[in-house]
Amino acid sequence: MCVRMKTCFTMSRKVVRSSKFRHVFGQALKTDQCYDDIRISQMTWDSNFCSVNPKFVAMIVDASGGGAFMVLPMSKTGRIDMSYPTVCGHTGPVLDIEFCPHNDNIIASGSEDCSVMIWEIPDAGLTSPLTEPVVKLEGHSKRVGILSWHPTAHNVLLSAGCDNVLILWNVARGQAVVRLDTVHPDLIYSACWNRDGSQILTSCKDKTMRVLDPREGTVLIEKEKPHDGSRPTRAVFVSDGKILSTGFSRMSERQVALWDPENFAEPLTLQELDTSSGVLLPFFDPDTGIVYLCGKGDSSIRYFEVTDEAPYVHYLSMYGSKESQKGMGYMPKRGLDVHKCEIARFYKLHERKCEPIVMTVPRKSDLFQDDLYPDTVGPEPSVEADEWFEGKDGRPVLISLKDGFVAPTKAKEFKVHKSLLKTSSASAGNPQDGGEVQSLRKEVKDLRAAVEELTKRMKELESKQ
Questions:
Q1: Is the peptide bond before 311 cis (omega within 30 degrees of 0)?
Q2: What is the rounded CA–CA span in Å between residue 193 and residue 150?
Q3: What CA–CA distance (Å, rounded) separates 374 from 287?
Q4: What is the pLDDT, as a whole number, of residue 185?
Q5: Is residue 102 within 8 Å of 150, Cβ to Cβ?
Q6: What confidence tens digit (pLDDT) does each residue in 36-88 have?
Q7: Which residues contact 52 (CB under 8 A, 6 or more apart)?
Q8: How far is it, in rounded angstroms, from Cα 247 to Cα 231?
Q9: Residue 230 near residue 194, CB atoms below 8 Å
Q10: Strand, helix or coil for residue 20
Q11: What tens digit of pLDDT does each residue of 371-403 get?
Q12: CA-to-CA distance for 195 and 190, rounded, in angstroms?
């Protein structure tokens, strides 16, 4: 009897895998810490619809006569007034937004109007509608649905459109430096960088996953049919250069798979999850090795640990709620509360609100948990755009979170803004054109003021009747 019990105990120990993330749990913040009464965009597009950093949360919203998104300071929780100003310079619906990882006040937006715009948000947030971008990037012939900033090079932005073209921009100069228009024969579903930005990973409607050399514009390696189903596939780089993909089986079951680019013939693991129809958006945390899967239209977030031991992708747990998600923002590590052992924070978009969800590792000690927080990617770029396009790679500049993240000084941020404005205006055209544009802007501003004054007078007259 004793021997049998000992055998059972030994077997059970083998079954339960040891991991410090086994008990990670998700918790939604209270109502007063949410952003309420926001009309989230109704567009049917599989992007995140939300981007966050330690300063701001941005959400794509419904707008009549064009496209708009809202940028709120982190502290502006509660009910948001309907008249709150938006960023509304696009003439078509906004499809994707992403904050610059090296400057918390700079955000890029891609739209159905075929353009990419770069915006500068004031430190205190918007006090009036923002209609003039810092830079406007034009090069796509169809709507732009994917944006991704380079992780280590300053002012390098990737954009992909429904014209099956992928463009790498030098934002400071307002130039399209690399244009990949023959690589993808069909719609690009996803595009992302590896950790140092030396490679790009894309998934495409032609059921092929490709690893690209971004500067040469060549395909380094490709995998046909990583998932057999016809619905959209997503793919991200994870630890040690491996690739995690989400997609659908031939029977429309949702799948997650892990691939080794050195041997693309068979996946390291392929797991079937459920039969929901929403595309799974993967968010990978390189510090913990955890990947979070958020399905559009789902009401849950599944999370897995990616390791070197079979079956490589280990299911940890699932955060569930009653409300389905229309989009999801993911906070960079430097924006988390390390004293509460917070390892991830999501910003879940409902139909009319944005709800923060905190992922926590339960620990009794109040001390800094250095096993949960290795040095992480900071906001400093390691290489400038011109250097990167010339062939220089840069490793991520890491920071310690032991004393909490301290934002760069204002003088430095202003310098970055100033140079960005200066270079973009210089590359916009000859000085004469610039003068004409300025005079046209002044005329438009004067006309708007006149219309507002007339509207005000009409309201006064109506109230007297």
A1: yes
A2: 7
A3: 6
A4: 96
A5: no
A6: 999 999 888 888 999 999 999 999 999 887 899 999 999 999 999 999 999 99
A7: 58, 99, 329, 330, 331, 332, 335, 347
A8: 7
A9: no
A10: coil
A11: 899 999 999 999 999 999 999 999 999 999 987
A12: 16
pLDDT, mean of residues 324-339: 94
Task: Answer for the pair 158, 147: CB distance below 8 angstroms, yes or no.
Answer: yes
What are the tokens at 377? 């990617």
State the chain's mean pLDDT as an integer: 87
- Written as one letter, the residue type at 285 is D
Q: Give me the sheet containing 234-237, strands edge to edge.
A: 234-237, 243-248, 254-259, 269-274
Q: Which of 270, 268, 258, 262 is nearest to 221 (CA)?
A: 262
245: pLDDT strictly greater than 90 = yes
Q: Give the Cα separation of 274 and 254 in Å (integer).
A: 5
179 bridge partner residues? 167
> What are the tokens at 236?
């991200």
Say what the pTM is: 0.84
Residues 6+ apart with CB under 8 A from 7: none
Contact between 253 and 273 under an 8 Å Cβ cutoff? The reply is yes
- The owner of tokens 């780089």 is 237
pLDDT at 449 over 70: yes
Q: Where are the beta strands (DSSP E) in 10-75?
A: 25-28, 35-36, 50-52, 56-61, 67-73
Position 107 scores a pLDDT of 97
* Backbone φ and ψ of 116, nearest 5°: -115, 135
Q: What is the pLDDT of residues 390-446, one digit of tens each?
A: 999 999 999 999 877 666 544 334 333 344 544 333 333 333 444 455 566 667 777
Dist. CA 363–CA 173, nearest whole Å: 48
Report which of 386, 451, 389, 380 is spatially closest to residue 416, judged by C-alpha positions. Answer: 380
Between vectors from CA 452 to CA 449 and to CA 453, what angle results, nearest 5°? 85
SS3 content of the chain, % helix, strand, coil (to 5): 20, 40, 45
Helices (H), 156-286: none
> What tokens were used for 257?
């798979």
For residues 341 and 369, the answer to whether their CB atoms sit within 8 Å is: yes
Which has the closest alpha carbon to 161: 178, 146, 173? 146
Q: Which residues contact 370 (CB under 8 A, 6 or more apart)?
A: 402
List the 166-170 sheet strands across, edge first.
144-149, 156-161, 166-170, 175-180
